[in-house]
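Annual report, structural modelling task.

Input specification for the norvaline complex:
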Amino acid sequence: SRLAAPRHFLTGEEIDGATLAALLARSRVLKQGRRSGSPKPLAGRSAALVFERPSTRTRVSFELAVVELGGYPVVLRGDELQLARGESIRDTALVLSRYVDLIAVRTGDHAKLEELARHASVPVVNLLSQQHHPCQALADLLTLAERFEELRGLPVAWVGDGNNVAHSLLLLGARAGLDLRVATPPALAPDPEIVERARAALESGGRISVGSDPIAAARGARALYTDVWVSMGREQDADRRRALLAPFRLDERLMRNAAEDAVVLHCLPAHPDEEIASDLLYGEQSAVWDQAENRLHAQKALLEFLLANE
Ligand code: CP
Ligand code: NVA
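The model returned the following structure:
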């Protein structure tokens, strides 16, 4: 059956559980077949990849995803665009839409992406905003699916900052039916509106709990996931965050409460021995490097999907 293609991928809420499952399955096929020559659904097509903030994984994996699917990526730093000199988002969207088949952007304020998407006539993809990182969540779920096969009811703990990566894990994890336990300091809890939206999208078997007890969240979990304590754009608040987040370090003490076969996840970049113990990051239970690799495979499936019906 042909899946209905959304125009954009800004928060992950554009896709339902069945579409998500299909994307993850397709990611695994593309991963398997990577060395034997990918299909070229992007042949003759192009994508603008705009980075207003630094990036290692997203930058490299997206450019390669477009190339491996036969397309042409135009990678731009924010400061190269006239946008940086005051050209409007609207005009930027209208012009880029005349050149490329897809626009992907890493920026700060999520509202900028929404404005771009309103005016673009090609799909717009969020490469991270202050509020969301949906491409990361696709790779996270792909990594969990590879390890555990069944995502429905899989207990996964998020410990640390209730940030963009947590928001996307909530919104897409709900669509996968995860048993998500989020533990953050109360002052750094995920946006309650996003939690509500995630709850409203829960697939059967899924559950979402939000609290501030990392041990309770970790108990019996098959994956423990954390992220940096100071995200891009939050630097002015660094000291307060480090103090609040110290009890949420992903370390052996938390790991002892998790399931025996539990993995640790981190979207990277990491600060070893700050938010995550280096023994865990580099240890046998780390799925972090698969998670980083899986950005590429998941994004290829996403690109193929977004451009399929265009
Ligand atoms: N996880 C992630 O998005 O990494 P980059 O900031 O390096 O792209
Ligand atoms: N939460 C981090 C993720 C980086 C990939 C940030 O927004 O900086």
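Residues 55-59, 128, 136, 267-269 surround phosphoric acid mono(formamide)ester (ligand 1) (CB under 6 Å).
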